[in-house]
Each structure stands twice: as structure tokens, then as C-alpha cells.
Amino acid sequence: MLAERKILALNLVSSPGSGKTSLLERTLKALGERVNMVLIAGDVQTENDAQRLIKAGGRIVRPIVTGGACHLDARMITKALEDIDLSAAELLFIENVGNLVCPSSYDLGEDMKVVLISTTEGDDKPLKYPSMFRRSSAFVINKIDLLGQSDFELARVKDNARQINGTLTTFELSCRTGEGLNGWYQWLEDQVALKKGRPPKQP
Amino acid sequence: MHELSIAKEIIAIVTAETEKKRLGRVETIHLRIGALSGVDPEALSFGFEAATLDTPLEGTRLVIEPVPVRATCRACGREFAVEDLVFLCPGCRSVDVDVTQGQEMQIDHLVVE
Ligand SMILES: Nc1nc2c(ncn2[C@@H]2O[C@H](COP(=O)(O)OP(=O)(O)OP(=O)(O)O)[C@@H](O)[C@H]2O)c(=O)[nH]1
Ligand SMILES: [Mg+2]
Ligand SMILES: [Zn+2]
Q1: How confident is the model at residue A68 (pLDDT cuts 50, 70, 90)?
Q2: What topology does CATH give the domain A8-195?
Q3: Tell me: the pLDDT tens digits for A78-111?
Q4: Which of B36, B87, B105 sits opposite A166 (nearest CB)?
Q5: What is the pLDDT of residue B4?
Q6: Is the Cβ–Cβ distance between A138 and A169 less than 8 Å?
Q7: Could you tell me the residue ranges of all domains in chain A?
Q8: A161 CB contacts (<8 Å, ≥6 apart)?
Q9: B21-53: per-residue pLDDT in tens?
Q10: B4 — contact with chain A (CB < 8 Å)?
Q11: Quick check: CB of A119 below 6 Å from ligand 1?
């Protein structure tokens, strides 16, 4: 369904609170005018994340309240997209339920999984959740503004991630200060272009 | 904890199969579960037991065969066992490797009375 439409579909996964919605808010504000985005926000109980994305400028936003389920599945995505006109859409973001285990077993028809962790978590997360890191294509390390306040070490988390998946594209950024976000935006635009069959713009 | 929903999917598949083929009571369901499947065998067995209470599958056992992780190097083509979660080609040290085994979660066969 998504593949033939040339819409880049990204499945964003993390533990609860790592910053998935914050990253999408930033992305909407920065690229919302240039890239036609559709967003699906999965949550166990509330539609709060979807509301935040609408506030941040999201024009097509759909909540999925799983009512207890710890992951999204492809049926839920199909249903959420049912009444959306996708003809102009270029980028579909799916914010999965906060959980690094269960969503790894479900293919949502995405082009790539983007796994996100924050510097307030353990830097051994890649080793603890190898299945998710193995299946992901990009790795976002968020909240670098808080580095130094715990024993989280950037070099160690990157080593651990490289051991599990040496081909991950890695970003270090802060959704609070904005540091590092330009690389993320650039990568997104490049991936959207590639999906459409156009080579990315040279910087 | 998605093991309960996986257990329910297994139950649905097995029930459909036994009805279609008019099979007798299912004694054991044999599964292959990869070390990288993201499925916890113990939680799955527990979820299965809970979900089959008071159904025709009550008392049916899950027999889980763990599947180790293997990979193929894209650079030199070598096929190797991934040990201790080190996804590195032992031949050429490349990290560009494809997992060929260990992500699966399959029903292998059923043993029916
Ligand atoms: N200091 C700091 N805080 C951040 C950063 N990014 C997000 N936060 C805060 O972290 C908290 C959780 O962020 P969310 O974006 O809601 O996280 P989430 O991953 O969407 O959470 P769930 O959807 O509940 O799993 C919020 O209070 C954010 O303000 C950051 O880069 N630095
Ligand atoms: Mg969120
Ligand atoms: Zn090799």
C-alpha cells in the first residue's frame, strides 16, 4: 500500500519518554512547509501525542489508541490511513507505543525503523534490546543537553550499537536545545528524495 | 508484553487448522523461536496457558525450539554464527552483515492425538 505510492514510511520506536513526540514536533516545525507529512501517533491510553503534533503544525495527524496493547500492528495502520488522501503525501511518520521489545516483532509496512534513546537511559540499551537495534536503520540519541549528568557515555552507547548493527545511521541531538537537529532534517529530506527515485541534493 | 497477543494468534491459527482438517485433540504445538525474535519463550508459554483456559486447547503444551542467530557477510560472503550479540564478520571484520536466521517465530508442526 505504501510502497507503490513512493511515500517514505518511518516507524519511530523508543522506551517511554525518550522523546519521540518531541522529535516529531521539531521535525514538523522545521520541515512542515517543505515536506508533506502524515503522522500517526500510537499510544496505549490517550490522544495527547496526536494533539501535540497538531499543535506543532501537523496537518494530517491520526491517533491510534491501542487500549492496552504494547505495540502497533499493520491492521491498525491500514485502518488509521483509510480515510486519508495520500496522493500528495511524501513522508509518513508512525510514532509507535513507548516500548523497545514488542514493536520489534511487528512489521508495519515501513521502509525503516528509527530507534531512539535518550541520555537519561542506560548506555547498554542496544545490548539489552538487540532485536530492535538489529531491525532499525537509524539511531537517534536524544537529550544530549543532559550529557554529564549521569554515567551515560556517548562513546559507549555508540560502541554498543555498532556491535549490534554496524550499519546504523546515527544522530546525536537535543530536542530541547535544537543541537544536532540539522543533520536529522537533512537525512530525512535525502531519504524522501531517494524514495521518490531522485538522488538527494548535494550540500 | 506482546506474548499474550502472539499466543492468541497461535491459538487462532491452530484452531483454524484443526477445524479445517478435522483433527483430534492437539497434544503439543512445536514452535521455532529465534533468539532475535523479540519474543520471550517463558512469557509466551505463560500467556498461552492463560489464553487457552476453558477452550478446546486447554492442556495443550507449547514446545519451543530456540533458534540461534546466524548471519552472512555482505562484503566477503562468509556465513557465521553470531555469538554474544557481536554482529561482526569473523573473516573480514565487516559490520555489513545480513541476519539469515534467528529472527523467526514460526509454528513448525502440531502433534495431534
Ligand atoms: N532535557 C531534554 N528533555 C527532552 C528532550 N527531548 C524531550 N525531552 C522531554 O522528555 C519528556 C518526554 O518527551 P516525549 O517527546 O513526550 O517522549 P515520547 O518518547 O514521545 O514519550 P511516550 O510517547 O510517552 O513514549 C518531555 O518532558 C520532553 O520535554 C531533550 O532533548 N532534552
Ligand atoms: Mg510520545
Ligand atoms: Zn566478511
Answers
A1: confident
A2: Rossmann fold (3.40.50)
A3: 999 999 989 999 999 999 999 998 888 889 999 9
A4: B87
A5: 86
A6: yes
A7: 8-195
A8: A126, A133, A139, A168, A170
A9: 999 999 999 999 999 988 889 999 999 999 999
A10: no
A11: no
Ligand 1 atom having least distance to the Cα of A52: 16
Confidence (pTM)? 0.89
Tens of pLDDT, residue by residue over A8-41, are: 999 999 999 999 999 999 999 999 999 999 999 9
Taking an 8 Å cut-off on Cβ atoms, the answer to whether A105 and B105 are in contact is yes
Based on its alpha-carbon atoms, the radius of gyration of chain A, rounded to whole angstroms, reads 16
Contact B87 A164 (CB under 8 A): yes
The ligand placed nearest to the CA atom of residue A115 is 1
CA distance A145 to B48: 44
Average model confidence (pLDDT) across chain B: 94
What is the architecture of the domain spanning B2-68+102-112? 2-Layer Sandwich (3.30)
State phi, psi for A63 to the nearest 5 degrees.
-85, 150
Residue B1 pLDDT > 80: no
Give me A180's grid cell.
544536532
Cα Rg, chain B, nearest whole Å: 18
Q: Left (φ > 0), alpha (ψ -120 to 50) or beta: where does A67 sit? A: left
Interface ipTM above 0.90: no
Judging contacts by C-beta atoms under 8 Å, the chain B residues touching residue A105 are 2, 6, 37-39, 105
Nearest to B95 among A104, A106, A166 (CB): A166
- Measure B81 CA to nearest chain A CA, in Å: 14
- What pLDDT score was predicted for residue A4? 67
Ranges of beta strands (E only) in A51-146 are 60-65, 91-95, 112-118, 138-142
Q: Where are the domains of chain B?
A: 2-68+102-112
Q: How far is A167 from chain B (nearest CA, A)?
A: 6
Q: Do B6 and A69 touch (CB under 8 A)?
A: no
Cβ contact A71–B2 (<8 Å): yes
Chain A residues whose CB is inside 8 A of the B6 CB are: 105
